[in-house]
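Thread amino acids onto this structure.
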């Protein structure tokens, strides 16, 4: 028997990729994600390639995965894809302690993030 197949949450002209546990704060990751939102895929890849942010390489890998999902799993045209959504979520936070003066300690927080990129195929306007 088994359970019934889950319905697809995205539209037929969309594909997505998710990367979890990126070792960067959501606030910093959102700066890079905001730079590619709404752009054509080629332009977004170029921006990420030449970005000076450390996390841009991981965002580029996620975007390339979304493009591959669109091409291989959903038969979408790569040349007409745009970044429909790029949203960032909080994952867990590792807490560490750092020795300070006079026998005290202060807490260091090391946050992690989740990244979701959705690409959508759009028709070229004449």
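Threaded sequence (126 positions):
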């Amino acid at each position: 028997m088994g359970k019934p197949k889950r319905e697809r949450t995205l539209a037929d002209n969309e594909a997505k990729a998710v990367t979890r546990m990126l070792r960067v704060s959501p606030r910093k990751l959102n700066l890079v994600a905001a730079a590619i939102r709404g752009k054509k895929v080629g332009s977004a890849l170029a921006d990420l390639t030449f970005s000076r942010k450390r996390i841009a390489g991981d965002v580029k890998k996620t975007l390339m995965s979304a493009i591959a999902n669109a091409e291989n799993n959903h038969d979408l045209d790569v040349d007409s894809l745009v970044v429909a959504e790029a949203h960032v979520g909080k994952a867990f936070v590792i807490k560490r302690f750092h020795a300070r003066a006079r026998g005290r300690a202060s807490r260091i927080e090391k946050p992690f993030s989740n990244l979701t990129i959705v690409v959508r195929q759009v028709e070229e306007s004449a």
